[in-house]
Write a structure and sequence with these properties.
Elements (H helix, E strand, L loop, with lengths): L2 H16 L8 H8 L1 H17 L6 H10 L1 H15 L7 H17 L4 H25 L4 H19 L13 H6 L8 H19 L1 H11 L1 H6 L4 H27 L10 H11 L11 H20 L7 H26 L1
Helix pairs in contact: 1-11, 3-15, 3-16, 5-10, 5-11, 5-13, 5-14, 5-15, 6-7, 6-8, 6-13, 7-8, 7-13, 10-11, 11-13, 14-15, 14-16, 15-16
Length: 342
């Protein structure tokens, strides 16, 4: 066992014994306990809308609604790690647009779409590493840094695209027909989201990287004193956020078949809202990848439900904000009830 590994173990043991935080239960048990509130809200929303409008429960509509949540869900999966260590990444909307434009330009200029995807992913990682380095070197809050890079990255995307949508892509290429299609009747993007969800949920709950993230979020000073590499972990967490955002951009390129530099506006706030709905607090120390995806699904269900209820578009933000408050309150009440029973 290395010195870092021992430090992580010591930090977690100290948290369990002195910080009043419970030890990690087996993963299935944790899932039922920690994500119950948000999953219950999601189920009630779907059932409620379905009772009023049975067509809402049509398989094609549910798949379409789930597909609409994929981009926010992927951003939220990476955002969970950032929030869990008391950081925040407001740049994901700009990173998304920049990666989308980079990929579209490469494909338009003749590069195979399959080869453009790794470039997009590396671009997202580079954006996350840049955020972490500026945050560390200038000793600034990540909130301020990523607020600036949000506009910086979006500006890069707009400049590269000359403010126009990038079209004339080879839509008959297998990348667009497969990745942007519905193999087996299910959108390909949903299979990607499922894979990312499983991997990152295990990483956060069981991998050493996830333990470092949670230890730093619980007490940054104690984590640093214990020998945990805080700077390296910050770089890795923000790089992961950039990676999942770039993954969302690659799926969007395949689905839309164009590169629009104006896409992604407001996605950063929706991703953070999805994480909070799913039980990841801004105070750090814990997080839930499953909950974050469920939170993004709730936002998508609300948006789809408003269409069925014929709610004027001007009320969309109002209704979404109300659902966020109700979801967070319900999840918080369930957590308090669970703690009282122990």
């Amino acid at each position: 066992m290395t010195e870092t590994e021992r430090a992580v173990d010591d930090a977690e043991r100290a948290r369990d014994q002195g910080g009043g935080l419970r030890r990690l239960a087996p993963l299935p048990g944790r899932l039922v306990r920690d994500e119950l509130g948000v999953l219950l809200v999601l189920g009630l929303l779907i059932a409620g809308i379905g009772i009023a409008y049975p067509d809402f429960l049509d398989t094609s509509n549910l798949l379409s609604t789930a597909h609409n949540s994929v981009y926010i869900s992927l951003m939220a999966c990476g955002m969970v790690f950032v929030l869990a260590m008391r950081e925040v990444d407001l740049s994901v909307g700009g990173t998304y647009a920049m990666c989308l434009v980079v990929g579209a330009l490469l494909v338009r200029d003749g590069l195979s779409p399959w080869l453009a995807v790794p470039v997009m992913l590396l671009t997202g990682i580079a954006a996350g590493v840049f955020n972490a380095l500026v945050t560390t070197l200038l000793a600034l809050p990540s909130f301020i840094v990523t607020l600036g890079t949000l506009m910086l990255f979006r500006g890069v995307g707009l400049a590269l695209a000359d403010g126009k949508q990038i079209t004339d892509l080879p839509l008959d290429d297998s990348f667009f027909t497969v990745v942007g299609g519905d193999p087996g009747g299910v959108p390909f993007a949903l299979w990607v989201l499922l894979a990312v969800l499983v991997v990152l949920a295990v990483v956060l709950a069981r991998a050493r990287f996830g333990a470092r993230v949670r230890a730093i979020g619980s007490n940054p000073d104690a984590a640093a004193f214990s020998g945990i590499p805080v700077v390296r972990t910050r770089i890795e967490a923000l790089a992961l956020s950039g990676l999942t955002t770039a993954c969302a951009a690659a799926l969007a390129l395949a689905f839309y078949g164009a590169g629009d530099p104006t896409l992604g506006q407001g996605y950063e706030l929706q991703a953070i809202a999805a994480c909070i709905i799913g039980g990841t607090p801004l105070a750090g120390g814990r997080g839930s990848v499953v909950g974050a995806v469920a939170g993004a699904m709730i936002l998508a269900v609300v948006a789809s439900g408003l269409v069925f209820f014929e709610v004027p578009i001007n009320w969309t933000s109002f209704a979404t904000g109300g659902v966020i408050l109700v979801a967070v309150a319900a999840d918080s009440a369930l957590r308090r009830t669970g703690r009282r029973r122990k």
